[in-house]
Specification:
- This protein is α+β, with helices and mostly antiparallel strands.
- It has helices spanning 11-20, 54-67, 91-96, 104-107, 148-162, 167-180, 185-195, 198-215, 221-235, 243-247, 254-282, and strands spanning 2-3, 25-29, 34-35, 43-50, 71-80, 86-89, 98-99, 102-103, 115-122, 125-137, 140-141.
- The protein has 3 domains: 2-141, no CATH class; 148-196, no CATH class; 198-279.
- It has 11 helices and 11 strands.
- The strands form 3 sheets. Strands 2, 4, 5, 6, 9, 10 and 11 form a 7-stranded mixed β-sheet that branches. A two-stranded antiparallel sheet has the order 1-3.
- The longest helix has 29 residues, at 254-282.
- It starts with a strand and ends with a helix.
- 25% of the residues are buried.
Length: 283
């Protein structure tokens, strides 16, 4: 599969990537970075920021928060407090510039994951967008460069961790590990076909439902309801969920929506895991 350019995403998403790149250089990573991956869901971006002062980075981040359109900043991860607990910054925290006694300018240069998690409204759907920041200012940086062996070890740990709870995710980590080692091309092709199968579509829909749960209290109910109608139509093309269960979407209310969404996600996850385990054993 060939790499996908950021400009091939919806303009509404590209706009937020431009805002939150904070004058750094960004590129797509993960399944959404590949053309031919039909059912990629979350959009992951790596952003390299070099030789910009921490003060300027924070200034650009505050500006990005102001310029957001139809977008929610779910959280901004950066640094640790004095007790070693991870810091998760809200828009208000970013505006203040201090959280639990730690300045944001200092937090972004701690050796930690620095990441913005956003949800962007695109028409009648919502897209999750994450930007991971790799910041280097002179000899200071917020990351340690991983060796190939360390990356491989992390992937293998993920394969084991997700094997039973999220088998498709485990297979995706296996795919990445095999690509890193330039492994069996025939098996890689089989995995790509599986990712583009109805199971891949089910997984994409499950992730769309999960995203809805995150914005259900932040967005107008009519928008959420229209999104659910679109999901009903998508699921209607599959056979994993009964007609009666899908028709319940027509009668859902804001009060009952969270339970319905959770029930649908559980049904999809159960079927995805079962089919993924079958595939993994046949690989």
């Amino acid at each position: 599969m060939i790499k996908k350019h950021i400009q091939l995403l919806n303009n509404a998403i590209v706009k937020e990537i431009n805002h939150f790149s904070l004058r750094g250089k960004s590129k797509l990573v993960g399944s959404n970075s590949l053309r031919g991956m039909l059912f990629a869901s979350d959009i992951d971006v790596n952003t390299d920021i070099k030789n910009i002062t921490p003060k300027l980075i924070v200034k650009y981040l505050r500006l990005a928060c102001v310029e957001m359109e139809n977008t929610h900043l779910i959280e901004f991860k950066a640094g640790y407090d004095k007790q070693g607990e991870k810091l998760r910054w809200s828009r208000e925290d970013i505006k203040k510039g201090v959280l639990r006694g730690i300045k944001l300018e200092d937090a972004i240069l701690q050796k930690s994951v620095v990441k913005a998690d956003l949800i962007v409204r695109v028409g009648n759907t919502y897209e999750e967008l994450s930007l991971n920041y790799f910041i280097k200012i002179g000899k200071q940086s917020n990351f340690n460069k991983q060796t190939k062996e360390e990356i491989q070890a992390d992937l293998e740990a993920d394969i084991d961790e997700y094997y039973k709870t999220n088998t498709l995710k485990s297979i995706k980590r296996l795919y990445s590990a095999m690509k890193l080692e330039k492994g069996n091309k025939e098996k890689l092709k089989k995995m790509e076909s599986f990712f583009n199968s109805p199971v891949g579509l089910e997984n994409k829909i499950k992730n769309e439902l999960d995203t809805l749960l995150k914005v259900i209290d932040l967005e107008p109910w009519e928008n959420i309801y229209q999104c659910l109608q679109g999901i009903k139509q998508e699921l209607g093309n599959l056979s994993s969920i009964s007609t009666n269960k899908l028709i319940k979407i027509d009668y859902v209310t804001k009060k009952s929506a969270k339970k319905l969404i959770t029930d649908l996600m559980d049904l999809l996850m159960k079927h995805i895991n079962a089919e993924s385990l079958k595939f993994l054993k046949s690989l």
